[in-house]
Amino acid sequence: MRTKLVALPRRAFCTHAAISGTSHIARLARLGQIDNARRVFDQMLHKPIASWNAVVSGYFQNSRPYEAREMFDRMPERNTVSWNGLVSGYVRNGMIEEARKAFDVMPERNVVSWTAMVRGYVRQGMVSAAEVLFWQMPEKNVVSWTVMLGGLIQDGRIDEARRLFDMMPVKDVVARTNMMGGYCQEGRLDEAREIFDEMPHRNVVCWTAMITGYAQNDRVDIARKLFEVMPEKNEVSWTAMLMGYTQCGRIEEASEIFDAMPVKSVVACNAMILGFGQRGEVVKSRQVFDMMREKDDGTWSAMIKVYERKGFELEALDLFAMMQREGVRPSFPSLISILSVCASLACLDQGRQVHAQLIRSHFDFDVYITSVLITMYIKCGNLVKAKVVFDRFGVKDVVMWNSIITGYAQHGLGEEALRVFQEMCSSMTLPDEVTFVGVLSACSYTGKVNEGREIFDSMKNKYLVEPQTEHYACMVDLLGRAGRLNEAMDLIKGMPVEADAVVWGALLGACRTYMNLDLAEVAAKKLLELEPENAGPYILLSNLYASKGKWTDVADLRRKMRSRSVSKSPGCSWIEVEKKVHMFTGGDSRSHPEHVGILRMLEKLGVLLRQAGYSPDGSFVLHDIDEEEKLHSLRYHSEKLAVAFGLLKIPEGMPIRVMKNLRVCGDCHSAIKLIAKVTGREIILRDANRFHHFKDGSCSCRDYW
DNA sequence: TTAGGGTTAG
């Protein structure tokens, strides 16, 4: 009697402890704390199979498949759940072959094992393999049918999916929601709505799916009506509604939804950061960001992206540094964002660091991120490194080929670009419209008129790529640079689509080079109609008037600009020194702490340049100001300030890399050529359009830009 | 402790 009394609670205690240990492990693993989960497991005296299974699954859930396998191999005994955990764990980590091996050797299979394997093939996009397995299943339940249904939908085989759906012996909410979502994806809202209306029972998930369906298909107002009447809302449904508004640019309403949400989930906050960012309300984005107590990787990358897109590159970089200080390990999406920041800001040192992180996280085998990486190296002016990364990558896709072709084009390496293009074609990768923009601009930068013409013609005939305005713009540029202005004008007249600002801009640029005032006025007039707020055409035209000494016309233009409140966007240049970016605006060096040194360097250069026979070219200054003032404003152009600072700071033998937000001015171009000569330094300047490699008194663009 | 549906991001 006594033993019984004692034994019973003891056994009850033991079992209870074991169960709670197991569920504790599972909970920790779900929270991403797999190492703590492992500690709990190690401390357990009695380890039931379930606890082993929980640890194995936990490792898989946290993307540590090798440790999961090690635990599995060490298990004293295994049941079907253990084997199923192994199969589904491999599936979850995209290791389909491993999953299949485990599936083939497992001693006993049940519906779960089969379904996990079918799901694995679906996840890999191997839908036919999934179908084969599905029809071999000894027994199926609603879940297995639903997995197969999802596979067909994912494959875009929506009508086949419907046939399968009709064959299902039992349909529950999940299956119906799947079918409904499939129709929504295809834009077949009526069929989706029919399934929704005929559902015997609806839950939050299917209401949300229907709302998303309407929102994604430009029916956000219908979505809102459903949202108002749905019986129960959760964070996800609020977020879906919010997204519906942000995606169609209705930020006011998105913001209202956001304010009304009882619980502001991380996802909703992230969406709102991006939503405000879209409209350029960067401060509001930041307010949401600062308000969040809990942030995920998406939060950081959203805020970084907003900064990057809206031209707050330094803030983006600061935030990335802060993220790392707070110990947040950047994962795939934020690394992509920050690589784009590095590319647009051209901070090579930061970019290199990110590259190292990619290698450490094994992301360097991804085609997509590698293309971003190549672009980053190119935009930082490090073509050699870009090519090394490119060559090392195995099977390349169009985007990667495009990155390197466009890169060569921007650096003025026309021959190389064309060679890579040939290589691409013989590698059986079909060029797309982006490829041709790269190839044609390569021809244009190197003056290969005939090659360009041939390629332009082959686009349609050989590669079945319809030329778009960008391609016409390239051709206008190509002909225009070669001085064939009338041919360029004829091409524009013959365009099947309306010429846009880029096309007219190309013509205007060529008119500037060849001093053709008549055509310039035609192009500029068109441009002022198309983009009245853009300062570019005013400036080009006024430079043209100025260089012909027509100061009354210059004054007229300036009056027009003022009355339409158009202002010249201030030119600025920057340079990275020891992982810090230094920004300079024209005429203003005083804001920099080392302005005294910079001015002294400029004085010194001035003497050296005059000795080398340099005379400043005042035609590049917009205003009709007196000669001396003009020369003064030339001397302090932002690119010159940045170059001077680079000469002070960058060690001898290292190239000086300077970036500018506008096109380099002609005077600076000739000055920097000479600076490269008299100082014996290599200077790489990235302007808004392309790269200039200055060495020994000449530039890689051969004065043709 | 193992298999299915709705929200963000590149």
Automatic annotation (TrEMBL):
Repeat among the record's keywords? Answer: yes
SUPFAM superfamilies in UniProt:
TPR-like
Among PROSITE patterns, the record links this protein to: PPR
GO biological process terms, alphabetically, are: system development
Does the UniProt entry include the keyword Repeat?
yes
- A UniProt-annotated Pfam family: PPR_2
State the PPR repeat positions: 48-78, 79-113, 141-171, 172-206, 234-268, 296-330, 397-431, 432-466
InterPro entries, sorted: DYW_dom (IPR032867), E_motif (IPR046848), PPR_At4g14850-like_plant (IPR046960), PPR_rpt (IPR002885), TPR-like_helical_dom_sf (IPR011990)
Q: Which UniProt keywords apply?
A: Repeat
* Top-level taxon in the UniProt lineage: Eukaryota
Query: Where does the DYW domain lie?
Result: 613-705
PANTHER family, sorted: PENTATRICOPEPTIDE REPEAT-CONTAINING PROTEIN (PTHR47926), TETRATRICOPEPTIDE-LIKE HELICAL DOMAIN SUPERFAMILY, DYW DOMAIN-CONTAINING PROTEIN (PTHR47926:SF373)
Q: Family, per the entry?
A: Belongs to the PPR family. PCMP-H subfamily.
| NCBIfam families linked to this entry | PPR (TIGR00756)
Q: What is this protein called?
A: DYW domain-containing protein
| Annotated organism of origin | Eucalyptus globulus
Q: What taxonomic ancestry is recorded?
A: Eukaryota, Viridiplantae, Streptophyta, Embryophyta, Tracheophyta
